[in-house]
C-alpha cells in the first residue's frame, strides 16, 4: 500500500524572538505557550492538510534566528518549497532585517529562479498594542520585493496562522504539478507517527 | 595479528592545513588541504601522522563567517561575488581566513558531476607519517597564525608546512615534548632541534591511559564497547581510525587507499560503495547484547566528606568522579561538588585556599577602587549597569546582547519554580549574570544557549557570585560551542555522524539519500 502524498517543505525565517516557534506550534498543535523554549539550531514538525483537494504533508522547519547559528540553519534551506519570512510588528529591527533573511535564504537554498520563488511574509504579534511597524509599511515592502502575500498573525490568539500556511501551500501548488514531490509515504521505517518532531542536535 | 596491534592516539587535532600552492608553483591556487594531525603510539613506536580530510563541514556554511571573529558580521558579506573576489586576490592573512577557507573547498552540490573520488585521491597524496625519532627539527613561524616546518633527518625533501589555522600548535608541540627533547637552535630560537631519547616509554603509556585526553585502546573497545563508548564518546573517531589501520594491515592496502577511506569517514563525499569494497569495514560493528546498566546510588554528603583530607583537599578524585558519573549526587552535595566539577574550585585546594579564592572573587583586594566596587564580580556588573541609555544607543553590540538576553531569559526553564511567574527574582539573577558575563568576555558576548547552561548552575548555587564564577569555568570548557566558527558543535556533529554510520549504516544512508546528511555534517 503506497499511498502518495505531496511533501512540501516550508521554512520559517526571521529574527530571534519574532515568534517563529510559537507560530509553528500554534499551527501544528493549536497551542500557545508563553514560556516556550528557545530554538537551538533547527527543528521541524509535520502537519497533514488538504488544500483545494490536494492531500499535503507540510513539513515545517523552524530555525534559530541568532546570527551565530547561521551555519547550523543554512544547510536546511536546500529543498524548501516555500519560505515564510517572519517579523514582529512590535520590533522594527526585525522588519528591517526581512531583506537580509530573504537574501540569505536565496543564497543558501540555491534557488534557481529567485523571482519566482514563493515567499510569504508574516507580521506576527498583532495582538500587542505598541506597534512599531504599520500594515502599510509592511505591505509596501512586500509589494516592492516580489509582490509577496502578507499576513498579520498572532500565534498568541491564533489570528491568521492557518490561513497563512494554507496560502503558502497554494502558492507552491500553483507553481507546478508537484510531481517531483510525490513520495511514497512508506519509505521510512521509523514507525512514524502522523505528527513527528525531531531536533537536529541536543 | 593486526587486530591485536595496539594503537593509542596520544594527540589529535583537526583543522591543520597544508597550502599546496605555496609548496608548488600555484597549480592549485585555491586548494587548501584540511586535515588532522595526530601523534600515535603504534606498537611502542611514536608516530606523527597527517591525514587530509574531505571538508568536514558544509563549506557553504562558512561563506558568511565574519571578518573579525569578535564582530557581528555584516549581511552584505553573504554575497557570492564578494567571497570570490576575495579568493582571486589571494589574501591569506588570518582575518580573511574564513572566507578563503570557505571558497577553497568545493560545494557539495558541485562534486556530483566531477567524480568525488578523484577529489579525495587528490587529497590523499598529502597524507604523511613518520616516526618521532626521524624528526630533525621543527621551525615555528607566525604569520597571523602559527605554522610549523618539520624537517626529517634522512629525507632531503621537506614535508609541507603545517598551518594551524584553528590553533593547536602549542598543544602539538607540548605533546611532542613528551616523546622528544625540543631545544632551541643556537642563533635561531624559532627553530627547535629534536632529539629523541632512547625511548623506554612503554610504562609511561600505561599512565597516559589514565589521562582523559588520551586515546582509546582497540581491544578495550572490543571487549566492552558500551562502557567504553560512554566513557569516551569523543574518542570513537579514534577507534574508527584504528579500525582502518587494522584493515590496512589485514588486506595490505596501499596507504593512499587507506587515506581515502579515512577521508571517507567524514561524509560529504558521495562514494559509491560498490566501488569501495573496503567500505564495509566500519559497518561491521557487532555490539552484542546490550549489557544491563544499573544506576548507582547518589553520592551523599557523608560520602563527599569522606573524600576530603583534614585540610579539605579532595582525595581519590578519579574514583570520586566515577561514583558521581554512575550515581549522581544528592541535591545537598551539589552546591559544593559542582564548584569542583565545573572547575571553579581546584580539586587539590585546601578549604583555606578556597575561602581565599572566594573572597578574592568577591573582593578584589588589590583594587584601588573604593570599597563598593572592589568586588570583582560587582565591578563588572557595575560596568553594564552604569551604561546610560544614550551610551547604549551608540553601542549596538551591547544593545544586541541585552536584547538577546532579555528574549532568552524569558524562555529559559520557566516551569522551574526558580524561574516561574512574572516577577521571580531568579529571572533577574539570570539576566544580571549573563549581562555581567558579556563584560567578562565582550568578544564572545551572549550567544543563544548560554542561558540554558547557566540556569541549572544558578539554581544549584543559589548565589549570584558563585554561580557567575562557576559559569565562567564552565564556559571555558564549552567556549568552542559558542564561537563564531562553532568548531565545537561541528566536531560533535561529525562525531555523531560517524557514530551513526558505524552503528546504523542503513539510517545513515537514508539521511544521505534524502540529502539530510548535511544535517549531521
Ligand atoms: N504577544 C505575543 N507574543 C508572542 C507571539 N508569538 C510569540 N510571542 C512571544 O514572543 C517570544 C518569542 O517567541 P518564539 O516563538 O520563541 O520566537 P522565535 O525566536 O522567533 O522562535 C515568546 O516569549 C513568545 O511567547 C504573539 O503572537 N503575540
Ligand atoms: Mg524559535
From TrEMBL, chain A:
It is found in: Cell membrane; Cytoplasmic vesicle, Phagosome membrane. Its cofactor is Mg(2+). The keyword Protein transport applies. Its EC number is 3.6.5.2. One of its GO terms (biological process) is Rab protein signal transduction. Gene3D superfamilies: P-loop containing nucleotide triphosphate hydrolases. It comes from the Eukaryota. This is small monomeric GTPase. It comes from Cottoperca gobio (Frogmouth). The lineage of its organism: Eukaryota, Metazoa, Chordata, Craniata, Vertebrata.
UniProtKB/TrEMBL annotation, chain B:
Residues 328-521 form the Rab-GAP TBC domain. It is found in: Cytoplasm. This is TBC1 domain family member 15 isoform X1. PROSITE patterns: TBC_RABGAP. GO terms for cellular component: cytoplasm. InterPro entries: Rab-GAP-TBC_dom (IPR000195), Rab-GAP_TBC_sf (IPR035969), SGSM1/2_RBD (IPR021935). Its main location: cytoplasm. GO terms for molecular function: GTPase activator activity. Keywords: Cytoplasm, GTPase activation, Phosphoprotein. The lineage of its organism: Eukaryota, Metazoa, Chordata, Craniata, Vertebrata. The keyword Cytoplasm applies.
Amino acid at each position: 500500500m503506497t499511498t502518495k502524498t505531496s511533501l512540501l517543505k516550508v521554512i520559517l525565517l526571521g529574527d530571534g524572538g519574532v515568534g517563529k516557534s510559537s507560530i509553528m506550534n500554534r499551527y501544528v498543535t493549536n497551542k500557545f505557550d508563553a514560556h516556550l523554549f528557545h530554538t537551538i539550531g533547527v527543528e521541524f514538525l509535520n502537519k497533514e492538510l488538504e488544500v483545494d483537494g490536494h492531500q499535503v504533508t507540510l513539513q515545517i522547519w523552524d530555525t534559530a534566528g541568532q546570527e551565530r547559528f547561521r551555519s547550523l540553519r543554512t544547510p536546511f534551506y536546500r529543498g524548501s518549497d516555500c519560505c515564510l519570512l517572519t517579523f514582529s510588528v512590535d520590533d522594527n529591527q526585525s522588519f528591517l532585517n526581512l531583506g537580509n533573511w530573504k537574501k540569505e535564504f536565496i543564497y543558501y537554498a540555491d534557488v534557481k529562479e529567485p523571482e519566482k520563488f514563493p515567499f510569504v511574509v508574516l507580521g506576527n504579534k498583532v495582538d500587542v498594542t505598541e506597534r512599531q511597524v504599520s500594515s502599510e509599511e509592511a505591505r509596501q515592502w512586500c509589494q516592492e520585493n516580489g509582490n509577496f502575500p502578507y499576513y498579520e498573525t498572532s500565534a498568541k490568539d491564533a489570528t491568521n496562522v492557518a490561513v497563512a500556511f494554507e496560502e503558502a501551500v497554494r502558492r507552491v501548488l500553483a507553481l507546478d504539478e508537484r510531481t517531483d514531490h510525490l513520495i511514497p509515504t512508506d519509505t521510512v521505517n521509523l514507525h512514524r507517527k502522523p505528527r513527528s518532531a525531531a531536533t537536529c542536535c541536543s | 595479528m593486526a587486530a591485536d596491534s595496539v594503537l593509542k592516539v596520544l594527540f589529535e587535532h583537526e583543522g591543520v592545513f597544508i597550502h599546496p600552492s605555496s609548496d608548488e608553483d600555484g597549480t592549485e591556487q585555491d586548494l587548501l588541504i584540511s586535515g588532522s594531525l595526530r601523534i600515535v603510539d603504534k606498537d611502542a613506536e611514536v608516530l606523527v601522522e597527517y591525514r587530509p580530510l574531505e571538508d568536514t563541514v558544509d563549506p557553504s556554511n562558512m561563506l558568511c563567517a565574519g571578518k573579525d571573529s569578535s564582530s557581528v558580521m555584516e549581511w552584505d558579506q553573504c554575497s557570492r561575488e564578494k567571497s570570490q573576489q576575495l579568493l582571486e586576490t589571494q589574501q591569506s592573512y588570518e582575518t580573511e581566513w574564513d572566507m578563503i577557507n570557505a571558497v577553497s573547498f568545493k560545494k557539495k552540490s558541485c562534486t556530483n558531476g566531477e567524480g568525488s573520488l578523484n577529489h579525495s585521491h587528490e587529497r590523499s597524496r598529502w597524507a604523511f607519517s613518520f616516526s618521532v625519532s626521524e624528526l630533525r627539527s621543527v621551525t615555528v613561524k607566525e604569520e597571523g597564525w602559527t605554522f610549523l616546518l618539520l624537517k626529517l633527518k634522512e629525507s632531503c625533501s621537506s614535508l609541507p608546512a603545517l598551518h594551524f589555522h584553528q590553533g593547536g600548535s602549542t598543544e602539538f608541540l607540548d605533546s611532542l615534548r613528551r616523546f622528544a627533547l625540543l631545544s632551541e637552535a643556537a642563533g635561531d630560537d624559532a627553530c627547535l632541534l629534536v632529539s629523541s631519547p632512547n625511548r623506554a616509554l612503554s610504562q609511561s603509556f600505561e599512565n597516559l591511559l589514565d589521562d582523559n585526553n588520551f586515546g582509546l585502546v582497540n581491544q578495550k573497545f572490543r571487549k566492552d564497547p558500551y562502557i567504553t563508548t560512554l566513557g569516551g564518546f569523543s574518542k570513537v573517531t579514534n577507534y574508527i581510525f584504528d579500525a582502518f589501520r587494522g584493515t590496512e594491515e589485514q588486506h595490505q592496502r596501499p596507504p593512499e587507499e587507506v587515506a581515502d577511506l579515512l577521508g571517507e569517514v567524514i561524509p560529504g563525499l558521495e562514494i559509491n560503495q560498490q566501488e569501495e569494497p573496503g567500505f564495509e569495514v566500519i559497518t561491521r560493528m557487532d555490539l552484542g547484547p546490550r549489557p544491563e546498566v544499573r544506576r548507582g546510588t547518589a553520592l551523599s554528603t557523608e560520602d563527599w566528606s569522606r573524600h576530603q583530607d583534614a585540610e579539605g583537599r579532595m582525595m581519590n578524585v578519579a574514583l570520586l568522579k566515577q561514583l558521581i558519573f554512575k550515581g549522581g549526587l544528592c541535591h545537598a552535595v551539589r552546591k559544593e561538588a559542582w564548584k569542583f566539577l565545573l572547575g571553579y574550585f581546584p580539586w587539590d585546594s585546601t578549604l583555606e585556599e578556597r575561602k581565599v579564592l572566594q573572597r578574592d572573587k568577591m573582593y578584589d583586594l588589590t583594587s584601588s577602587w573604593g570599597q563598593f566596587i572592589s568586588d570583582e564580580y560587582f565591578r563588572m556588573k557595575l560596568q553594564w549597569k552604569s551604561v546610560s541609555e544614550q551610551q547604549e544607543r551608540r553601542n549596538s553590540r551591547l544593545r544586541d546582547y541585552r536584547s538577546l538576553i532579555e528574549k532568552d531569559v524569558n524562555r529559559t526553564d520557566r516551569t522551574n519554580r526558580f524561574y516561574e511567574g512574572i516577577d521571580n527574582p531568579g529571572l533577574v539573577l539570570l539576566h544580571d549574570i549573563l549581562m555581567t558575563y558579556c563584560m567578562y568576555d565582550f568578544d564572545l558576548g551572549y550567544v543563544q544557549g548560554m542561558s540554558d547552561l547557566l540556569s541549572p548552575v544558578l539554581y544549584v548555587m543559589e548565589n549570584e557570585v558563585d554561580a557567575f564564577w562557576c559559569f565562567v569555568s564552565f564556559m571555558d570548557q564549552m567556549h568552542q560551542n559558542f564561537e563564531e566558527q562553532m568548531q565545537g558543535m561541528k566536531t560533535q556533529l561529525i562525531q555523531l555522524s560517524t557514530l551513526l554510520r558505524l552503528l546504523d549504516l542503513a539510517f545513515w544512508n537514508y539521511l544521505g539519500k534524502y540529502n539530510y546528511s548535511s544535517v549531521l555534517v
